Amino acid sequence: MRRSSDLTPEIAEESAWWRDAVFYQVYVRSFADSNGDGVGDLDGIRSRLGYLELLGVDALWLTPFYRSPMADHGYDVADPRDVDPIFGDLAAFDRLVADAHEHNIRVTIDLVPNHTSDLHVWFQEALQAGPGSMERARYVFREGRGFDGSQPPNNWTSVFGGPAWTRVPDGQWFLHLFAPEQPDLNWDHPEVRADLEHTLRFWLDRGVDGFRIDVAHGMAKPEGLPDMEIRAQAPGVLSDDAHDPRFDNDGVHEIHRMIRKVMDGYPGTMAVGEIWVKDDERFAAYVRPDELHLGFNFRLVEAGFDADAVRTAIEHSLGAVALTGTPATWTLSNHDVVRHVTRYGGGALGEQRARAMTLVELALPGVIYLYNGEELGLPNVELPDWALQDPTWERSGHTERGRDGCRVPIPWEGTSPPFGFSTAVNTWLPQPNEWDHLTAEAQLEDPGSMLSLYREALEHRKSNAGFAGEELEWYGAPAGCFAFRRKGGGLICALNTSGASVPLPPGQVLLSSGPMDGDQLPPDTAVWLV
């Protein structure tokens, strides 16, 4: 079992370290390639730990690196207790954890409990065993509708497009809320629960500090699998709907209680759930004292660059956790959404607004999740059709381009691709030639760069007493603007999304997202004052 002596003194000293931590999401395929095959890997991450320590993050979140046929780039897991050879092996994982702890960086990893790969040994056994077997009961198999069973059991759609059911040769259908290569597990089956507990303990015993639970509002399915209401917009995880029977069923909380019970036996570890639930009370249920430590909050991702929308997102986020004693979490980008530089308008305008929102996010009380490359100001990339690999592209009949644009490998150094990411000329997704000014090398010594802004802001957040307060007080502000204060700490953050400069709140400027205009706050700019 994990021991506190396994960690450095700085890491071992506080069991609730995660309450105000800054996490850095590493999309493993795209961070750093150590062996020249064009795909990022675990030793590549280890080679860049010095950069992450310099940036000032407290913990990593690694996307799946488990054995997988890669139909969904690792979220189709064939063996949750082994490393896929494309990323390394268990020894490489152990080296990464040990070295990260030496850099005083904790390591959290993705957990994918809703489904497995169709090449998982269980699913292969289910196909061979046939209808009514114990092997098939581990998954959600059903008879079809219609006189000959040729119609799916219900009208559910896949998040990636098309039906959520696939028929097997013996006539039954299996459920897959995502790709057909990702059959959903039956969480009413005791072996499914026992296997997850085995997986949790396997990685906790290897020293991981926590888990990010993929689709944490999934897993539990409603009794009878009723039809869903088909809306004009394509329903899915990112379009939360209180009437969608596929997600946020009450039975999911029993699963999270089981996870929490296991983790309570490993002091200092934590679990955060990916919870696409907008209702504040429903969201809060996931972070009750006997469930998850944190709930991944997407309200800032969904808010446009508008002061009223951002303030509403902040207030709802704080309100959702107010009665639970759990800190809020904040993020602007991840591996499933358009990068925020592009969402805010792209180009110079998008970068200016992204800098402003970075200061807003980092001024907030609670937990921060950064997505690799956002500290470099990376935009989404318009990739050519031939390069697209996200299953959404094929499942939608080439109408939805998918998420590849936010997953392009990181540019580290040099003036042309692969920008130090790999020794391979062709990386798994192509990098734009014009990224030479966005490399970490180009930005490191430039005090005006996005990277320098992140480093300075994170240093202030960690060391400045103005960030001590956990509650916010709002100031009166002109239309299109807001200002709040960290109650108890005293830091003031002001944002201007209007089209004109406005007077600054009282205080001394600690950091600004862009050039100031005397005692005026320019448009598309944020500032910290003390």
UniProtKB/TrEMBL annotation:
Pfam families, per the entry: Alpha-amylase (PF00128)
Q: Residue ranges of the Glycosyl hydrolase family 13 catalytic domain? A: 25-407
TM segments? none
* GO BP: oligosaccharide catabolic process
Name the source's superkingdom. Answer: Bacteria
Q: Name one GO molecular function term.
A: alpha-amylase activity
Alphabetical list of CDD domains matching this protein: AmyAc_OligoGlu_TS (cd11332)
Entry-linked InterPro entries: GH, GH13_cat_dom, O16G_dom_2
Instruction: Spell out the SUPFAM superfamilies in the cross-references.
Output: (Trans)glycosidases (SSF51445)
Sequence similarity? Belongs to the glycosyl hydrolase 13 family.
Instruction: Name it.
Output: Alpha-glucosidase
Organism annotation:
Lentzea waywayandensis
